[in-house]
């Protein structure tokens, strides 16, 4: 990894960890640049492996949500990624209620998450 790419990667990590200043930019200037750009620019790209039926389900939900809306200006697109971000936010709110001790596998984790 080159010094430049390592430096860029570390700046991204600083932002995720909530540091007030990434090297060369302040938190204020970062927020100002976000306000000028598109909403998607504030998101981090994450790759995940889903089962085909999971992806199909998310796509179906997003299409259903988009079709059921009344037309109007200023409404955001609801996508599979929107559902994933919202689910993660809900999980963050409830994470303290999940017993994370001695989870053997995905099946066990799913069971515990369904209890919250």
What does this 3D model show about the protein?
The chain has 116 residues and is mostly helical. It has 5 helices and 2 strands, in the order αββαααα. The termini are far apart.
Secondary-structure blueprint of this entry?
Elements: H1 3-16, E1 21-22, E2 25-26, H2 27-36, H3 52-67, H4 80-94, H5 106-114
Antiparallel strand pairs: 1-2
Helix pairs in contact: 3-4
Helix content: 55-70%
Number of E-state strands:
2
Report how far apart the termini are. Answer: 42 Å
Spatially, the strands of the biggest sheet line up as: 1-2
What labels describe this entry?
116 residues; mainly alpha; two-stranded antiparallel sheet; 5 helices; elongated
Q: What's a quick, concise take on this entry?
A:
55% of the residues lie in helices and 3% in strands. The chain has 5 helices and 2 strands; from the N terminus they run αββαααα. A two-stranded antiparallel ribbon has the order 1-2.
